[in-house]
Design a protein that fits this description.
- This protein is 70% helix and 0% strand.
- It folds into two domains: 62 residues; 157 residues, no CATH class.
- The protein is mainly α.
- Helix 2 packs across helix 3 and helix 4 packs antiparallel against helix 6.
- It starts with a helix and ends with a helix.
């Protein structure tokens, strides 16, 4: 039963994230509820579906059948994915992306730092986190829980980019041409270049500290 609940919550977590943020649905909700309550509904649905996954997995042991031989945390590929995860997320906070960013303040549409690498650093960080944990769990429950961290960033990156392309702001359109959702896509295609000086050292140190704390918590728990 717990595994079924986990799978249902995982599907709802992804589907409602994309569905409630679709422009027609979002506009309809804001007209009927108001902008503030519409955001509150979005947050509530996200919290309930995500919380349902965590409760089913962590407290009711929703693991299910093993699908493959799980990798250990000593595997180098797993560590690479987790390092990338913390780097993407740390730099996404240092240089927020204008693509899908709704943080209550305007974000300058400029492809610099990590935004030269990808227009969705936070999503790519979630994706790397999900992949790493899928590999070390190897069960149906692990695939449902951590797979949502892979599927949502992939669909969400495409969805938010498609919505942003509707913007009439020429600076936003220029930003979209200079970067890409796929990491290093714009750099490989020659539309941008990597500038290491734009990667602030304090952000890098913050990512290292956060990563170290997360590893420590794994061992404690």
């Amino acid at each position: 039963m717990a595994l079924i609940v986990l799978i249902i919550c995982a599907v709802l977590f992804v589907a409602t994230h994309v569905g409630l943020s679709a422009l027609p649905v979002k506009a309809a909700l804001e007209r009927s509820l108001g902008a503030g309550r519409a955001k509150g509904l979005y947050a509530l649905v996200s919290l309930l579906s995500f919380g349902g996954m965590i409760v089913a997995y962590a407290f009711f042991g929703a693991r299910g059948q093993a699908l493959w031989a799980a990798l250990g945390w000593d595997n180098a590929f797993v560590w690479i994915l987790m390092i990338l995860s913390f780097l993407f997320i740390a730099y996404s906070m240092a240089t927020p992306s204008p693509v899908g960013a709704d943080m209550g303040k305007p974000v300058k549409p400029e492809a610099r730092g990590m935004l030269r690498v990808t227009s969705h650093p936070q999503n790519m960080g979630m994706l790397c986190f999900g992949l790493a944990h899928i590999l070390v769990t190897g069960t149906v429950g692990g695939l449902a829980l951590y797979g949502s961290f892979v599927v949502l960033p992939l669909i969400g990156s495409w969805h938010e980019t498609a919505k942003t392309r509707l913007s009439a702001d020429p600076a936003v359109q220029a930003f979209l041409k200079e970067t890409s959702p796929l990491p290093f896509g714009a750099i490989i295609s020659g539309r941008n270049r990597l500038v290491l000086e734009e990667f602030a050292l304090p952000t890098l140190l913050g990512a290292i500290v956060a990563g170290g704390a997360a590893v420590g918590l794994h061992f404690l728990l």
